[in-house]
């Protein structure tokens, strides 16, 4: 909803044009059912060569967006400033009747993502297939690893989404080795961000974090450039996640669960006359 709190828009002509471009991008993603974070919006503008990739432009964008919202030009709900409470969203979902769509599958699958802000995008996939979404925010705590070992068995799969930088690339090794400490041989598969995706989508680069203790290894392998997962379009993240899940599951069994769920819902509707 657009709501005006400042009657005067204190922006130059160039920045007013920028607001029009911002609204066009936000509307495009809203029509697809997505709400962007400020950082995702920034990377979309960089990817379209509308603004250069530097901290000054990021701060400038934040200021333009603030003034646009206060002046009633940009919809307040068009930017997601805080990560949706995933647990609350899950609770809302499980209050509706559904069967366990992973029933009968040979292995458990989880999606782990490095970025809190992208959990709302990947939640569309995990809720569809009834698999767990884990936000690990960097190197996971020992408690989080212990909880994971209680959920997972050897042979289960973790699909990992993280930045292409020293820590993000090292995270796959870290998760795999730490699960081994708990006696679990887990198949940890990096889904994004990969060099193949970087070559395909050409996201804006960032300098590698030289202070990261893993920087020397990363620079030897990939050079001094890194890329952030946020730069991928949300629809692409969803496509990658769905394809990765469907490669691992028995789709016929999954569809049988969907059919049973629909029959049960129809019976409930009939019983309660709704």
Key terms:
Dna Topoisomerase Vi A Subunit, Chain: A, domain 2, globular, two-stranded antiparallel sheet, 6 strands, 274 residues, alpha/beta
Average of per-residue pLDDT values = 87
Domain count, please report it: 2
- The radius of gyration over CA amounts to 21 Å
Helix content: 40-55%
- Tally the helices: 11
Q: Which descriptor suits the 3D outline? A: globular
Summarize the main sheet: 4 strands, parallel
Number of strands: 6
Neighbour order of strands in the largest sheet: 2-1-3-4
The first-to-last residue Cα distance is 32 Å
Structural class: alpha/beta
What CATH first level of the largest domain would be assigned? Alpha Beta
**Strand percent estimate:** 5-15%
Unreliable stretches: 89-95
CATH topology (fold) name of the largest domain: Dna Topoisomerase Vi A Subunit, Chain: A, domain 2
Q: Which series of helices and strands comes N to C?
A: HHHHEHEHEHEHEHEHH
Task: Assign the CATH architecture of the largest domain.
Answer: 3-Layer(aba) Sandwich
Explain what the structure shows.
The chain is an alpha/beta fold and 274 residues long. It has 2 domains: 13-78; 86-253, Dna Topoisomerase Vi A Subunit, Chain: A, domain 2 (3-Layer(aba) Sandwich), CATH 3.40.1360.10. Helix content is 51%, strand content 9%. The strands form 2 sheets. Strands 2-1-3-4 form a 4-stranded parallel sheet, sandwiched between helices. The longest helix has 22 residues, at 251-272. The protein is globular and about 60 Å long. It starts with 12 loop residues before the first helix and ends with a helix. The model is unreliable at 89-95 (pLDDT under 50).
């Amino acid at each position: 909803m657009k709501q005006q709190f400042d009657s005067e828009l204190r922006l130059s002509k160039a920045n007013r044009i920028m607001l029009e471009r911002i609204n066009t991008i936000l509307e495009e993603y809203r029509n697809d059912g997505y709400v962007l974070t400020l950082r995702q919006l920034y990377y979309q503008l960089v990817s379209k060569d509308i603004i250069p990739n530097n901290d000054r432009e990021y701060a400038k964008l934040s200021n333009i967006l603030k003034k646009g919202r206060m002046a009633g030009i940009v919809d307040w709900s068009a930017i997601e400033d805080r990560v949706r409470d995933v647990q609350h969203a899950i609770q809302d979902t499980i209050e509706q009747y559904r069967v366990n769509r992973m029933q009968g599958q040979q292995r458990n699958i989880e999606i782990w993502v490095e970025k809190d802000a992208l959990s709302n995008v990947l939640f569309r996939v995990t809720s569809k297939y009834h698999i767990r979404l884990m936000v690990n925010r960097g190197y996971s705590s020992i408690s989080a690893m212990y909880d994971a070992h209680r959920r997972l068995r050897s042979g289960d799969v973790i699909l990992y989404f993280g930045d292409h930088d020293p820590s993000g690339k090292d995270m796959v090794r870290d998760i795999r080795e730490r699960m081994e400490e708990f006696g679990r041989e887990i198949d940890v598969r990096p889904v994004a961000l990969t060099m193949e995706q970087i070559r395909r989508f050409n996201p804006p680069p960032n300098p590698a974090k030289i202070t990261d203790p893993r920087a020397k290894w990363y620079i030897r392998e990939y050079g001094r450039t890194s890329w952030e997962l946020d730069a991928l379009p949300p629809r692409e993240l969803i496509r990658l996640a769905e394809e990765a899940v469907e490669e691992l599951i028995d789709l016929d069994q999954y569809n049988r669960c969907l059919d049973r769920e629909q029959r049960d819902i129809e019976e409930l509707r009939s019983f309660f006359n709704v």
